[in-house]
Write a structure and sequence with these properties.
Blueprint: E1 5-22, E2 28-47, E3 52-56, H1 70-81, E4 90-95, H2 106-121, H3 128-138, H4 142-147, E5 151-155, E6 159-162, E7 170-175, H5 182-187, H6 207-214, H7 222-228, H8 231-240, E8 245-250, E9 257-261, H9 264-277, E10 282-287
Helix pairs in contact: 1-2, 1-3
Amino acid sequence: MADIFVETAPAKINLALHVTGRRSDGYHELDSLVVFADVADEIEASPAPNDILKVTGPFGTGLTSGEGNLVLRAVAAFRANWPDHVPTRLAFDLKKNLPVAAGLGGGSADAAAVLRLMAALGPALIPEHELMAVAAQLGADVPMCLLSRPCRARGIGEKITALRSFPKLHVVLVNPLVPVVTADVFRRLSIHQNEGLPDLPEPLTRPAQLGIWLAETRNDLEPPAVALVPVIGQLHDALGKAPGCVLARMSGSGATVFGLFGSSTQAHQAAHDLRERWPGYWVAAAPVIEPD
């Protein structure tokens, strides 16, 4: 085995998110169009006497590295299902490059990265549906993060349909570094029964085509999140006015706001302008990861 293995955990972005129902167990049914940006947490693993975790990176401060961390839960779940696939124990270094509690996938993306990393280390191919089933046991967002490609997610997030085509786009992400607790946002949600997303065009290949479709959608969690963190609305307005912005909206339960752009130049200019206006905020510009 090599000394160090590396896997990235790309940022998840909900381009549209409709809340379509509430289940008896408290979970909400959703219908969401999800993409991933080429900006990510990073996980390194190396052989060790025991499975352990160290959390580093600009947003690693304060995160626990104990058994409750979703990364170690993913390791334990993988070993429980495929005990002989990776006989060597591993020391994991989670480099948190993305803000925490930001609506970008967070721990779910990190757990999914661990599943991909460990699956790749063994001699046999693990069927995707089996890996997806383990991902779903870890959390509602983990299956879509396991895919990390444009997809439509329904149910509580576990019903995934990968998109065969998607426009070439760039995204700007801005977060005011105010953590938002998902449960607090859902508690402020006034309507829990909404229609799902409209049917997607086939094939979906042009930014303008996507923009027209997105205009008929929304993020149902944005109004309650703005009530909790009003600056989300300011960031939405600022990005929406940036030259070349196809759409500005909040991702997930916030507080990250994204803007979609047709060119890298426009995206990086918008990111530069945001950094000048809000120098203390986290801002990134990156391509949207395309379908395989």
